[in-house]
């Protein structure tokens, strides 16, 4: 079994640990936190006494029984954590968005070229979701795509704190937060996975005083159609997502966490394509990626790595079109 260690101790790391335990995918061997007690608290909470808690990153990454590192630090720190893990001979699962700039992606790509035995895979969890995969199968069967409207907008649990004058990482340019990099990335991923890289794209963002984007509208332009992206973190939307092929419409109730998928042949006639949705949103992803490591599926790793680069490139173009500048790219 592949041994995994985690960086970060927030809710998403807990969800990842639960998914590992429920799916019996990875063996959790090490937890890193800036505060050992926080890592130890997770070891206790999830009854994994065989795992080790560490607050020394080099020691954590040097552990001989550590194979894969799950990086769930703030966005702007992904690059340095991924680079350090690779330099210690460990493969990586990095939370979305994997990197902030194309330069970061290219620097990691250069390391991977030198170390074909290592892999980096982005935690774009919806790509592995059974309902997303059911939708993908139908999208690929359409003879012609005539357009799409993709939506993902959730009122953030940290927006009240942001409005109260606190500075949560996810609303901070220092940590590469904001609506596009946090939630828009799911929609960009679906568009690039389904239709490829757009010919051009632009993003119109509504921003806060610190210049972070709170919500907005993006357009991806393809040769024969356009894709509209609607996303945000400061308001709540119940819009579904749709892919059009003239009379037919592929419909998902929620592209971020799809539970219902339909193929409409006319307004009143549809085929229900819905699959069982796992309770844990990372369950399908963790199961799929652990299989990829176990079976050494190099081509699949390579496919997802190329996708990561394309998504990174589109995110970068969208961000610049909206005039959003992150602190890390000024260094
Ligand atoms: N796939 C999903 O469904 C999903 C959901 C939520 C988030 N995410 C992704 O997961 C990542 C983490 O998001 P989050 O909202 O959980 O982030 P966060 O709470 O801001 O930080 C995550 C962890 O990073 C460490 N950290 C926080 N601030 C730091 C700093 N200034 N310097 C160094 N380490 C710091 C903390 O761990 P320690 O205190 O233990 O060191 C913290 O638990 C992001 O990339 C986000 O996009 C994915």
From TrEMBL:
<dbReference type="InterPro" id="IPR000683">
    <property type="entry name" value="Gfo/Idh/MocA-like_OxRdtase_N"/>
</dbReference>
<feature type="domain" description="Gfo/Idh/MocA-like oxidoreductase N-terminal">
    <location>
        <begin position="3"/>
        <end position="116"/>
    </location>
</feature>
<protein>
    <submittedName>
        <fullName>Gfo/Idh/MocA family protein</fullName>
    </submittedName>
</protein>
<dbReference type="InterPro" id="IPR036291">
    <property type="entry name" value="NAD(P)-bd_dom_sf"/>
</dbReference>
<dbReference type="Pfam" id="PF01408">
    <property type="entry name" value="GFO_IDH_MocA"/>
</dbReference>
């Amino acid at each position: 079994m592949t041994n995994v260690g985690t960086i970060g101790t927030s809710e998403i790391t807990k969800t990842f640990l639960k998914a590992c335990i429920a799916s019996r995918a990875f063996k959790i061997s090490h937890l890193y936190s800036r505060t050992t007690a926080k890592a130890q608290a997770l070891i206790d909470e999830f009854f994994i006494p065989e795992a080790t808690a560490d607050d020394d990153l080099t020691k954590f990454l040097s552990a001989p029984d550590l194979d894969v590192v799950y990086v769930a630090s703030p966005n702007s720190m992904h690059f340095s954590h991924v680079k350090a893990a690779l330099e210690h001979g460990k493969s990586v699962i990095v939370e979305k968005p994997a990197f902030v700039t194309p330069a970061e992606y290219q620097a990691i790509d250069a390391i991977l070229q030198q170390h074909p035995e290592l892999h980096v895979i982005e935690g774009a969890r919806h790509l592995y979701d059974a309902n997303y995969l059911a939708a993908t199968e139908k999208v690929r069967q359409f003879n012609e795509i005539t357009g799409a409207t993709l939506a993902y907008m959730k009122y953030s649990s940290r927006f009240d704190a942001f409005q109260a004058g606190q500075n949560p990482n996810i609303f901070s340019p220092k940590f590469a937060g904001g609506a596009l990099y946090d939630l828009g990335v799911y929609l960009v991923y679906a568009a690039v996975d389904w239709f490829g890289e757009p010919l051009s794209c632009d993003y119109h963002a509504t921003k806060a005083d610190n210049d972070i984007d709170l919500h907005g509208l993006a357009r991806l332009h393809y040769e024969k159609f356009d894709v509209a992206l609607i996303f945000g973190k400061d308001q709540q939307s119940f819009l579904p997502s749709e892919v059009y092929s003239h009379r037919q419409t592929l419909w998902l109730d929620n592209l971020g966490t799809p539970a219902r998928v339909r193929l409409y042949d006319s307004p009143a006639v549809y085929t229900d394509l819905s699959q069982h949705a796992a309770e844990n949103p990372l369950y399908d992803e963790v199961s799929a990626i652990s299989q990829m490591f176990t079976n050494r599926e190099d081509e699949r790793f390579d496919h997802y790595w190329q996708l990561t680069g394309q998504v990174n490139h589109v995110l970068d173009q969208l961000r610049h079109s909206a005039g959003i500048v992150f602190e890390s790219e000024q260094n």
